[in-house]
């Protein structure tokens, strides 16, 4: 097997395409032949030693992937050799094969493409947990999605529409806004050239959005929160822009609004039954055509450094997927 090995987490340039012995799964594990692996923002942070999870060295990055089970370890009964699965294990995806905990593998129903599956778990689980579980979104409410053309943003648009909400998508270019419209957004804001607060006011008749989905953080957090509706819910999903914003607490008081943390990873660990039910529903929605990952492009696994560079340019719309 081959994999992109990180021996020193100083950045993407330290990764090396390395031949390694193909491992044998232990109890509770499976060996997966990787067909596709998506590139997520944590995959950049982890090779820069900036992510909260710091795996022992050396390690193979690649948090999310899909492929075919090649061997199963002792005690694994729900998966079999030849079965297609998706997995989000945190590391191991950027190679030709990997060992994964069987408990983290999502069996793929017939017709679930490996490229879509590799770009599915993180963005849809995060967005469903945020909008349905944490925000208790109701049909007819208005959702503002910041960073709407990214992976979790595009998933949030689709899930909010599936729930019967009105969606305002905010992104940094006309091209990104057009993408958001094409996947169901009812209105868009190009915050690269429009005043965010004024645009929100105009699109909501001064009422403001009931739910704000924010995976970006940074400078847009406060103007967005100042625009929230009475009893609004502000979803803190992530900080893709870098800076972690600080919001004056009096804003929450004045709007009767809630600041709601979204940490799907811990939810999955603490409430595994609820998470499994959620993933089952999302797989059904995919089969019904209600949701489908937006794939910016696929690239050969051997071109991973170029894919990292493309992601760093902020030009990605949807998900980047590496394929073997």
TrEMBL record:
SUPFAM superfamilies assigned: GroES-like, NAD(P)-binding Rossmann-fold domains
Annotated EC: 1.6.5.5
Domain of life where this protein originates: Bacteria
Presence of the UniProt keyword Isomerase in the record: no
Protein name as catalogued: NADPH2:quinone reductase
Domain Enoyl reductase (ER): residue ranges: 11-322
InterPro entries, alphabetized: ADH-like_C (IPR013149), ADH-like_N (IPR013154), ER (IPR020843), GroES-like_sf (IPR011032), NAD(P)-bd_dom_sf (IPR036291), Quin_OxRdtase/zeta-crystal_CS (IPR002364), Zn-ADH-like_protein (IPR051397)
SMART domains per UniProt: PKS_ER
The UniProt record lists the keyword Oxidoreductase: yes
Annotated GO MF terms: quinone reductase (NADPH) activity; zinc ion binding
Alphabetic keyword roster: Oxidoreductase
Pfam family name, one: ADH_N
């Amino acid at each position: 097997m081959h994999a992109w090995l990180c021996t020193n987490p100083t950045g993407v340039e330290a990764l090396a395409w390395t031949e390694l012995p193909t491992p044998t799964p232990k109890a509770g594990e499976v060996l997966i032949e990787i067909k596709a692996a998506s590139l997520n923002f944590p995959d950049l942070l982890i090779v820069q030693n900036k992510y909260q999870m710091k795996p022992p060295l050396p390690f193979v990055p690649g948090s999310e992937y899909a492929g075919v089970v090649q061997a199963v370890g002792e005690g694994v009964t729900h998966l079999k050799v030849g079965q297609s699965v998706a997995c989000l294990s945190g590391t191991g995806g950027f190679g030709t094969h990997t060992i994964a905990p069987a408990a983290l593998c999502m069996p793929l129903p017939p017709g679930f493409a490996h490229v879509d599956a590799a770009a599915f778990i993180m963005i849809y689980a995060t967005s469903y947990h945020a909008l349905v579980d944490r925000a208790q979104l109701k049909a007819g409410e208005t959702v503002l999605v910041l960073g709407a053309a990214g992976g979790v943003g595009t998933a949030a648009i689709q899930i909010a529409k599936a729930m019967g909400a009105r969606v305002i998508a905010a992104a940094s270019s006309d091209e990104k806004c057009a993408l958001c419209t094409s996947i169901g957004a009812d209105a868009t804001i190009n915050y690269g050239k429009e005043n965010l607060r004024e645009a929100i006011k105009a699109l909501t008749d001064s009422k403001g959005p009931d739910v704000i989905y924010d995976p970006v953080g940074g400078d847009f957090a406060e103007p967005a929160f100042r625009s929230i509706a009475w009893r609004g819910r502000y979803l803190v999903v992530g900080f893709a822009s870098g800076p972690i914003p600080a919001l004056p607490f009096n804003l929450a008081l004045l709007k009767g609004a809630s600041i709601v943390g979204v940490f799907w990873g811990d939810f999955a660990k603490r409430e595994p039954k609820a998470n499994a039910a959620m993933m089952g529903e999302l797989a059904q929605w995919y089969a019904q055509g209600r949701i489908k990952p937006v794939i910016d492009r696929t690239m050969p696994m051997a071109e991973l450094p170029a894919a990292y560079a493309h992601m760093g340019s902020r030009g990605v719309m949807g998900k980047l997927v590496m394929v073997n």
